[in-house]
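User
Take a look at the entry that follows and flag anything odd:
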Amino acid sequence: MKEDDMNTRKNESKFWLTLSKDELPINAMGRSGERCLSENQFRPKLLVGELTKVSTWHKQKKLKPTEWRPSADIPVVICGAKISLEKVLLHYDGKAQTAKSIIRFVSIFEEELKYSQITIVSPGFIPKSKIREEASLVRLLSKKSQETSFIKFNFTQIEQFWQYAQQHNFTFLVTPKKYLSSLLHLLGSLHHPKPNSFLKLSIYLS
């Protein structure tokens, strides 16, 4: 590990770890059985929280707000021992910032998404001014993934996305970072009778 990376990690809270995409425990395999990585792939920094630690610490109220509130510009990943982008649930809420965040997500995980099944969740009503943006995102994701579907739900709470993702065996949830606080409270309140099911869903917030 480089010295500047070590210095960065020393300054982190106990809650988050700063990693590049290539340092994530991604279980994403190409058809050849080899890891989907490119030498020239964009390597941004991500703030990563381990799922069981996030749940336990928040449940036991070990965290101060200053410890879990990350920089607004850095995407957050909350995950178990392995990350799979096999089946992605992606939340588009009609906001311009969310559209930019989705495009950024695609740029970070472009190689892994080649083998993904993506389901886009969009509100039942989108202003006419946003229809073109919504259609553009659908085209982008269809081009970058193995399979893309599009559904309309009037979900307004992170609990609804979480429950839908769990019920339909999604492995990766993409949602705006404004839901981070609510998500942490949700994870801290959950009981996990089936830990394997709980751990297989990773969450990306940006």
Q: What stands out?
A: The mean pLDDT is 81. Residues 21 and 109 are 8 Å apart (CA to CA).
